[in-house]
Design brief:
alpha+beta; 103 residues; single chain; 2 domains; 7 strands; two-stranded antiparallel ribbon; 18% strand
Length: 103
Amino acid sequence: MLNAMKPGSVVVDLAVETGGNVEGVAYDQVIDRNGVKIVGIANLPGRVPLHASQVYAANLEALVEEFWDKTNKTFVLKLDDEIIKGCLVTHGGKIVNEKLLGK
């Protein structure tokens, strides 16, 4: 199966602690086999929440910085901005996100 995969493909073996499900997997390592990465990081599910929280926090910080008026120390809600249009769900008591409205 691995030999049929395109270079750049990634296989993550979540069972590496018990011997793994992927031939050639190595405990706590990432192996390259003909351009296919085999990830054998131990306890990967236990490591994900930390990184997910870090990424989420960084994204929120970047969003606030983008629309923060440093002079007046306020968040400026620019309703015509593409970023705001994509993440704003409601405004003024109405659903304003076009994806939620089926548009």
